Amino acid sequence: MPIPERVTYDGQRWQMAADFGFGVPLGAFIGPDEDGDGRWSGIPTPTAEIIMEIMDTGDVPRVTDTLREQAEVDFRYWRAEAVVLGPHEYRWALSAFLTMLLGPGQQVDDVVVWQINPDTGEVIAPR
């Protein structure tokens, strides 16, 4: 579930490198926002908004049970099967946030992966 960043669009690059074997949250298209103006991607869910804010600033918000519940709702909406953290300017901040939100991820080569049950939005514990 790499979220397409507003500046680099790494999510789409990962998707292309995987021969479009997975979808990315928010998509890759030009469409209307809430006010009818044009925007690049879909309208962000609350979890996507928080992740994009961390990607922009490196500021890590406090993680609450409400935020965890919202993430599960958003993961179900996206039908996410994994959250993948790759290289990023604020990787440390994203890692801290995702670890507080989801628990420890699994290091796989140069990325950290959290397996998600797409039906429930819950994290699948690493084996």
What features would you describe in this structure?
The chain is 36% helix and 17% strand. By secondary structure, it is of the alpha+beta class. Strands 3, 4, 5 and 6 form a 4-stranded antiparallel beta sheet that branches. A hairpin with a 2-residue loop joins strand 4 (106-108) and strand 5 (111-116). The model has no long low-confidence stretch (mean pLDDT 82).
Approximately how much beta-strand content do the residues carry? Answer: 15-25%
Broad shape: globular
Number of strands: 6
Helix content: 25-40%
Mean pLDDT: 82
CA-based gyration radius? 14 Å
Largest sheet composition: 4 strands, antiparallel
What is the straight-line distance between the termini?
20 Å
Low-confidence stretches: none
Give the helices and strands as they follow along the chain. HEEHHEHEEE
Secondary structure topology:
Elements: H1 10-17, E1 30-32, E2 38-40, H2 46-57, H3 65-78, E3 82-85, H4 91-102, E4 106-108, E5 111-116, E6 123-124
Antiparallel strand pairs: 1-2, 3-5, 4-5, 5-6
